[in-house]
């Protein structure tokens, strides 16, 4: 039994009682894992939803021309509504849109040799901002 006691490395009673209180429980989970917060802040939750609605800004010659007049074009989720798009733009860029127009576009028919197929359909949103307001969608391009 002398070998087992050396391997086991038992702690004295004074150290074991001092480290953990009787009423305190350790969080369940893996060793070294961090417990998830109980509730995410509403600001971050709304912003995360906004990035699911606004997929990406469209950068084309026509879209760039519209930016001079306060019209910004985005590719949005197919299920997004105009009020959701307006709220997403406000959450991401901090500017409330004046008007939102949407267009649902069919996917193009494409060919690979003799085989034909179709690209996915998508939805485009034209967001109009009030005069004097602008957003920076070219950052990081």
UniProtKB/TrEMBL annotation:
Keywords: Ribonucleoprotein, Ribosomal protein, RNA-binding, rRNA-binding. GO terms for biological process: translation. It comes from the Bacteria. InterPro entries: Nucleotide-bd_a/b_plait_sf, Ribosomal_uL23-like, Ribosomal_uL23/eL15/eS24_sf. Residues 1-14 have a biased composition (Basic and acidic residues). GO terms for molecular function: rRNA binding; structural constituent of ribosome. The keyword Methyltransferase does not apply. One of its GO terms (cellular component) is ribonucleoprotein complex. The keyword Ribosomal protein applies. Pfam families: Ribosomal_L23 (PF00276). Residues 1-44 are annotated as: Disordered. Part of the 50S ribosomal subunit. Contacts protein L29, and trigger factor when it is bound to the ribosome. NCBIfam families: PRK05738.2-4 (NF004363). One of the early assembly proteins it binds 23S rRNA. One of the proteins that surrounds the polypeptide exit tunnel on the outside of the ribosome. Forms the main docking site for trigger factor binding to the ribosome. Belongs to the universal ribosomal protein uL23 family. This is Large ribosomal subunit protein uL23. It comes from Candidatus Magasanikbacteria bacterium GW2011_GWA2_56_11.
